[in-house]
């Protein structure tokens, strides 16, 4: 067994994502880098700038060509990545997934914020604020699994626990503020008593606030993720709160899992890994938790400030 | 002598067709016998092309019958027409510009044949064979690279490859010179001798009387008369066409001494011409003659900066001028009428009024460049009337006009700006006798008012009848100048022949 | 549509012969919605619906003119986003927001000029040039912001006014939109300068043979479209109080669809501002109505696509019938 | 490119005169990458790069033929996704995957036929019809799956083989792609049936006057493009072992860009399969290279767009020079 957990010189770890330009990855990669530095490793950010599964797979396979020790992967879709991940693992590369999983693959761990927990928290917060027999609506982004989960879980939770809560609107706005503006304007028209809105991402939340303001109404808006604008709206009291996955920890712990997967000699657990021949570093699911952002703590979530002096 | 079958080859009975409110055909009638060349004449917009489009299945008649060998047939599409042995050379050239000449020629055969694979070199050789009696054109070139007259020849070649019994030529010679036209007529006679029935549409009376056995005249969509050409005179046909007496004489030529110079071009050289120098004088009409592809069009376009990087030293009314581009030309009063009216003469999708005002919108605009639509329509109406433009209203799209009337719109466009000097490339292409005389009178009138007029024409009688002086171009060189007594067809042909300019080459 | 039309019914005079079909379709949908939902015909809903398309409609104006001249612009979405980003960054760097906006609009005009250069001088096709510009402008957005939206909450209210303020009961954004439409509709129908756009698009060679500097026309229409994207971007920025580097992805299809529904042809020479705006209204009306009726997400696209197809088919038949029924 | 050319150098004969420029550009990029990255010229990387574009290239083939005939198809992305969804749903319902695939491809052909109907019989423009189809097909995908990807891990290996299997060292998907390209390139260049596609696109009137049933040609090319989308969708499904309702968003622009880079014209009559595939290779090579060199994401789009523009400009100059330099 290895006695110190350090990287060899030049030992590289990759974080591979889709839509690389998305700001969500920025704090995640910061966490990833911090951990890499702590272990004396190189950290590389890679993936595809596009929302395109074929391109992400190609970029993942190209990562393999450079023979890194491990890859922290956000697979755009679960099943298409089974084969590429398995090939990587077979080639001795440690793969951990984060924020989206490929459960049937041989990845060693999956780290995420629990979308179900977020939905449950949001549901409870709505009921606490507007009562348990009110009208509420959701915006969604069909096809994106974590957003889907946030929405369907909240609806299911409401149906089960608060049957008097009435779902009066459900619109696909696909992260587009303009589409959200249209949808929420219509919802507010159609449902004068609309009390609360649950939105699984920040882009639509921006349009929703604009619509509420334009209609001079103040439904309770609660959304997941953050953007500078929604932060300001939270500070101004126009958005009730935001739930934000703990991105930094996701990256940091994500690195540690990947790293451990690449250094299994340090672990000698009480199980059958030796005879069955699998990597002893196996964790089905790690919850990195989420932050609740309200007027009071919004200031700490300004990404610009956090990123000052880093890159 | 061909033995006549008892039934005429093709009979058209009481065919009518309306485009909305426009009744293009009221009672179209025609009877074509096997082995005859049958002329179809009529003013612009009389309905000749419409009637032929119906025979070819491009248009469906509102009423009436088509009989072939006495049997009624319904022609739903050009494909059906081909099946019935009908071939058609259209008035408007329609070739696939990106495709080679050879493939264009054999397109119909490709469409019909059961062959699965394209022929390779065989197609080129075959195309060469078909083209050979007409002109030398490289069958491997894309059709878009040819000049309009060459494209016209390709169109003709296309029709000749079909195994047809009925062949329709809709003004095939409008863009051809005498030389090519004669080749075409000889081919037509051969075909007729083999029992093929030919319908020949033309505005040139001479051609009709030289080559056709019978003539059918239409007016306003109606059949007026059918007669043997031996029984009538050109004047009778013209009378029947226009419904009144018409003197088709050319306006009197310039008399008196040479006046001031309007344009002088020195040592113009360009894409297809070398060392061209000439002058245009006040009051005269200058003609340019030559064979197909001689370079007359290129000379005019080069001088007006429409094409290529021609070099020329140009003096306008004595002053040296630099013409930067065609817009600059127009602003200096020099305009050019294109031989290719569909390609660059008119805007088919726009209204007649918008077409007529295109060269200088300021004429129809008030302050701040706001267009006065009433003034625009008025202007179009006025010029249209002098050119005998037949159109229901100036708001109609040009595409809805007959070929000859489109040509009048193209001409109206230029006249609207009151130019100082006009280059006219085939100005009366497709225009009927009456209107042609009118246009000639207008040109003469303009010349008398001091407008410089240069006419490029492939129609020999027009060159000789209209122009005071004719410059002959051969293979890009000026080979001679003819005027007065010397201005004869024979002299022009001599100077135009290939090699005529050999002596001038240095 | 350039045709001088004199003896027409009031309706078709109001809307130009070409647009009557679209007006009819919109009116039918409007009536249907009025019965279907009690909330539809309310001032607030109308206002919200108008707000939803008014800014994009400014881009539609630019696109329509470009289409008429024979061009097309795929970069509208990213250029709009770039305008937001440039103005936003300048503002955050301390520049007065109005000046920042002017600079951003000028930058968009500059992009239009570069695209125009590649189209007219180099001789490439609009499609490929504007596609490259679309990718590059999006890259510039990402580079400028690091992919993060810029929070511009601090924009002064006097500036935000153009996005969220009202003049009397009418939102400023709608006023800007109406003015743009009326002005450009007039220009396009009536002025000599814009008539050349029709000539160029209808038959570029014939236009050149009429002494029109067609390359200059194409250059200017390309530039105009980008400039109007800049204007739209600024209004969006004022409205949302943020600059989003990912704004407007896929906008080009929507905008081109509006113009085409309104009678513009992708091969140039045809189209009208009024028609294009009606096209935009139709698309927006359908979206808003589906949201108002709370139609299931899974059905929305299907219904939207079908209504689009039905509307275009119906309009096509009307236009064809009118064409056949004489044009005297 | 159509002229039967006999006296040509071997190189230009191999690649057809039109494509030489593209081949050059690709070779230069290839060489540059070989020096820039030691990982570039490895079997694995080549394989990954080929896999990245080989399936989409099948769609490129269909689009190119459609473009040549004068049409365009914006629905390719959603129709490809729909093929996956239909086959996936059928498989989950117990249908044999091969039969399910055939049904899915037939369904795509059906969609193509409906689009063809609206274009040829009703007389609408391809752009608007395929845009509506794009929206509707996406809606059907969402409706069929509830927006969630279908996990098809249970697909038999014999079926998955077409997506992930190999024949010798060559992946099956690449073999399918190569066969499609070679077959259609041959068909398009040499058979009378496909020459009619060129005629129709070059000048529909001329073709119709020559007795070609141009509407039928357009109908068939529209259908062919959708059918090939269906084929691509099935291979994707076999490759990914899942059916994704959101697959292929924005694919149309990529695919059209490839065809246009390869010499196809949006106004029809021009284009070649080989050129289009080279266009796809170029686009894919640039993307892959940027990823391999680990260029900052904020710069990637800018570089990508610029290379695209530079390549097209260079190619354009080559083609122009060749045209000017006489054609013997
Ligand atoms: N597509 C159309 N739409 C409307 N009117 C049409 C259309 N085609 C032809 N016409 C009208 O039908 C009439 C007959 O036209 P046609 O082309 O048959 O004349 P033509 O005898 O061939 O004349 P020309 O000698 O000038 O070629 C004209 O008044 C013309 O304006
Ligand atoms: N668009 C073109 N592309 C290439 N070559 C052309 C083009 N137009 C004309 N030419 C060539 O230029 C030469 C001169 O043609 P031009 O049209 O000037 O002759 P022309 O005397 O007007 O005769 P006509 O018009 O009767 O053919 C010809 O050899 C012709 O093939
Ligand atoms: Mg005619
Ligand atoms: Mg000529």
TrEMBL record, chain B:
It is a peripheral membrane protein. SUPFAM superfamilies: P-loop containing nucleoside triphosphate hydrolases. GO terms for molecular function: ATP binding; ATP hydrolysis activity. Its main location: membrane. Pfam families: ABC_tran (PF00005). It comes from the Bacteria. Keywords: ATP-binding, Cell membrane, Membrane, Nucleotide-binding, Repeat, Sugar transport, Translocase, Transport. This is Ribose import ATP-binding protein RbsA 2. It comes from Gemmobacter aquaticus. The gene is rbsA2.
From TrEMBL, chains C, D:
Keywords: Cell membrane, Membrane, Transmembrane, Transmembrane helix. It comes from Gemmobacter aquaticus. It comes from the Bacteria. One of its GO terms (molecular function) is transmembrane transporter activity. GO terms for cellular component: plasma membrane. The lineage of its organism: Bacteria, Pseudomonadati, Pseudomonadota, Alphaproteobacteria, Rhodobacterales. It is a multi-pass membrane protein. This is Sugar ABC transporter permease. It is found in: Cell membrane. The chain crosses the membrane at residues 21-41, 47-67, 74-92, 98-120, 127-147, 167-188, 217-238, 273-296. Its main location: membrane.
